[in-house]
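Q: Structure tokens for this one, please.
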Amino acid sequence: MGTLTLETSPAAPLVLLREPSATTEEQIRVSVRLARASFAPRQDDFRPDRRHGARSPFPYPVQLTPVLGGNQPDVEQTITVIGRHLSEQGLDFYHHEPVPFRRAVVSLPTDGKEWVSFLFELFWTRYNCHGWYDNGGRFLAVVPPMEFNA
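A: Here is the predicted structure, written as tokens:
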């Protein structure tokens, strides 16, 4: 596996986030790389596991906004969770109680000034021995960024 290095120069991204011709997977990939590039990984030594894609530690606050029946985010019910790992396919995170919804908009901070947001489907939740819940799921699409104070 190679190492991703993004420079902070004003070079154009490979795929513009809102480019209509970009596939959903390309939009997700570019947005995750933007969030990853904003934070330096804390360790370079990853153990091999059963996951298909590379993942990076992402121990930062993440905003989770439930999606209502009409695919509208319920901003008043937004919760803050603590990220655990981030990959181009999805995210796993910690929360102090079970997450009461399955679909959400996940908003990740980039450089303290901007957010990237994804439609997210929660796949699993488990109680860990430290009194927290581990949760994980996959990104379905890039959505317009939600506005938060980073």
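A few notes: Residues 4-17 have pLDDT under 50 and may be disordered. The beta strands are 55-57, 61-66, 79-87, 90-95, 103-109, 115-127, 133-143.
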